[in-house]
Amino acid sequence: MKSKLSKRGKIFLSVWASVVAVLLAAVIVTIALSPPGTLAEIFKRTANDTAVSDSGGSSFLGRVINPALICAYAVTVLILAAAAAVRIFALPKFSYIPGKFQCFIERVTEFFTGIANGIKRIKIHRQKKEKKPRKKLSKRRKVFLAVWALIVVLLFAAVILTIVLSPPGTKAETVQGTMKDAVLHESNRFALFGLEVNPSLISAYIVTGILLIAAAAIRIFALPRFRYVPGKFQSAVEKLVEFFTDMAQSNSPHKPRFLSCYIFSAGVYIFFGTVFELFGVQAVTSKGLTLTLPAPLADINAAIAMGCTSFGVILAAGIINGGIKGALRVLKDFSLPISMSFRLFGALLSGLLVTELVYYYISLSFVLPVIVGVLFTLLHALIQAYVLIMLVSIFYGEAAEPRPKKSKAKKSKRKKSEA
To answer: Residue 174's CB: how many other CB atoms inside 10 A?
Structure first.
């Protein structure tokens, strides 16, 4: 049984809801009243300034340096000054019965001490394992290691030859232009039904079509052939479905069916949509240029759509379960769609930007960018798919949790006792 909200808590929630409503209204009014092109110019300027600081800098000790270096110096000085102040003024006043500040300092210290002790235990455990006699490498493993070392040597030789033999002045576009085009998609657009759209929209249509065709093929041809003793493909499908079903059941035991379907769809779409850019599918832009299609969720519009759709699912669960009160409980986490959208967009875009930087600064168009791109893409595909479905399942479970109802018998007894 959950305790009722006190009068003070109700006042706090009402004030918090009014502040949120005023902030949202101010944002909407600002966007509506701003002249056309203002927000686009601000975003362009931010992308130019934050991507790579090639053109601008701050003067420090007679030198023009990156503004981030000045921020690093300022933060370092503040941390050192705070540490000195705590050591000189606060530490001698610590007592046996700690106050709030002393409790905070002690907990922070215990946290990092625990990490250090954990690392020490791991080292001791490894040392105990190393004392045991190791098995000799088999002939097959020695051949594998030799081939692997040969491949690494050839790759490094290719790297050195590419850097040495690459002609000077081959960079036709600045790194700022590369970063800006990767974020804003101003120059590389595609014509679709008479409209110019971002490359990610074409990728989204292709990925959605492939997933729908694959789902229909599995349902029509593979599912009727499933047996009591499963094969490899049947085992893989069953384990994938069980993973999402168990997650939905553990986080939302009251209404898991719809949640399991949604997180399965969202997780599969995020994973395969991110892996899609590894295949290097190319298309012709409206200007006649050939461009490799990016991941669908590398566009801010697609990421916001995914975040808002997930929040809409959570909000629908709150409305179905508790009506207006359930919707208000969900709306208190108003920053959830923003955090989900920009976490997804930033993580997927970072892989693209890192790969573009490697392409730009190092002439390794056939060695290192492939490795970096594959690692970043697979890592972000797995992590972001898991993070989003976990957040959706947790918040959906909270919204769909049934609330205890007041019984009429208790109300009548209270009225009689009062009378």
So the answer is: 13
